[in-house]
């Protein structure tokens, strides 16, 4: 089954050039059943990456442009009165999709940002005392501009913790930019793309990953990383047990892409910075958090 995901990585890399590692990490996050946060400057390919993943996975995709005047009802939906039968009926918002792209999430007000919390954690939304389940699988891939830019509202720690992984795409190299400038418009390429997965295949892969084995030695390694973050003198935010569970899930997905049914310490190391960076950074920013994550990785002994 992992062969199809290697094909997905190869096809996505034809549009998102020179970002093979970032593409694999994004797919790892989806396979682990988690939400993804992409922080970077405008124009480096964040939206393109999400559109490509939506097309190739065949997941029903919706894009929400977050702005200062966006309201929670614009995201979740609302009860609307029908004068014909004199009843209120629920009209679902764009969040009722399998893959939701929350574009420039940190440009919305904290109230609207928080509308995503229940959906991301529980896969359901509550409006006017009633609860509706979201489609399965359900993913949020959010993009945000660096927090020092004007007109942004930093995501609170509770919201950052809902994202399994965070990525930075960074600027393309000069050679890659020349290829992009000479090539076809990526939007036209994406329109021609077809899904690589049949109905239910993507969900089946997620269930396979749940069976990937995590040895006691690797579990101890993850626990030691968490413990090191809580020691006095460490500058980053202390990591929770939920963070450790996220790290384990991501490592299982990475091992699956390497055609293994067990996790090695190297798998944990491959996903450590993307899983820990945004949690450690908090309001200091993801970039600082990634530095602290790399320091934790260096300071924690790796099991042999």
Top keywords for this entry?
two-stranded antiparallel ribbon, 304 residues, Helicase, Ruva Protein, domain 3, single chain, 9 strands, 2 domains, Rossmann fold, alpha/beta
Taken from the alpha-carbon principal axes, the silhouette is globular
Q: What oligomeric state do these chains adopt?
A: single chain
Uncertain stretches of 5 or more adjacent residues = none
Q: What's the SSE pattern?
A: HHEHEHEEEHHEEEHEHHHHHHH
* Average pLDDT rating: 89
Name given to the CATH architecture of the largest domain: 3-Layer(aba) Sandwich
Descriptive overview:
The protein is an alpha/beta fold and 304 residues long. The protein has two domains: 1-183 and 197-210, P-loop containing nucleotide triphosphate hydrolases (Rossmann fold), CATH 3.40.50; 212-304, Orthogonal Bundle (Helicase, Ruva Protein, domain 3), CATH 1.10.8. The chain has helices spanning 2-13, 20-31, 46-57, 72-76, 110-114, 116-122, 157-160, 174-182, 186-192, 201-209, 216-229, 241-257, 265-281, 286-299, and strands spanning 35-39, 61-65, 77-82, 87-92, 99-103, 124-127, 130-133, 139-144, 163-167. A five-stranded parallel beta sheet has the order 2-5-8-1-9. Strands 3-4 form a two-stranded antiparallel sheet. The protein has a two-stranded antiparallel sheet with strand order 6-7. A hairpin with a 2-residue loop joins strand 6 (124-127) and strand 7 (130-133). Helix 1 (2-13) packs across helix 2 (20-31), helix 2 (20-31) crosses helix 12 and helix 11 packs across helix 12. The chain starts with a helix and ends in a 5-residue tail after the last helix. The model has no long low-confidence stretch (mean pLDDT 89).
């Amino acid at each position: 089954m992992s062969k199809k995901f290697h094909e997905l990585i190869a096809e996505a890399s034809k549009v998102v050039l020179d970002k093979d590692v970032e593409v694999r990490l994004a797919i790892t996050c989806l396979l682990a059943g988690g939400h993804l946060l992409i922080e970077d400057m405008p124009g480096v390919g964040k939206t393109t990456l999400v559109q490509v993943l939506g097309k190739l996975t065949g997941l029903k995709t919706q894009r929400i442009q977050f702005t200062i005047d966006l309201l929670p009802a614009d995201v979740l939906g609302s009860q609307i009165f029908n004068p014909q039968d004199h009843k209120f009926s629920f009209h679902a918002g764009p969040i009722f999709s399998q893959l939701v792209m929350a574009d420039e999430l940190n440009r919305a007000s904290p109230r609207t940002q928080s509308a995503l919390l229940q959906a991301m954690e529980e896969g359901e939304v509550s409006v006017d005392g009633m609860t509706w389940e979201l489609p399965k699988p359900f993913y949020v891939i959010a993009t945000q501009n660096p927090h020092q830019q004007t007109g942004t509202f930093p995501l609170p720690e509770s919201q950052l913790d809902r994202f399994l992984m965070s990525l930075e795409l960074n600027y393309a190299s000069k050679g890659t930019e020349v290829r992009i400038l000479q090539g076809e418009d990526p939007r036209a390429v994406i329109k021609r793309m077809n899904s690589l997965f049949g109905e239910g295949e993507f969900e089946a892969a997620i269930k396979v990953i749940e069976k990937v084995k995590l040895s006691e030695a690797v579990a101890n390694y993850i626990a030691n990383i968490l413990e090191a973050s809580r020691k006095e003198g460490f500058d980053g935010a202390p990591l929770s047990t939920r963070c450790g569970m996220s790290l384990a899930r991501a490592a299982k997905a990475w091992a699956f892409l390497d055609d293994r049914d067990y996790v090695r310490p190297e798998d944990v190391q491959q996903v450590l910075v993307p899983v820990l960076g945004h949690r450690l950074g908090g309001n200091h920013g993801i970039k600082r958090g990634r530095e602290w994550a790399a320091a934790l990785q260096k300071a924690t002994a790796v099991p042999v």
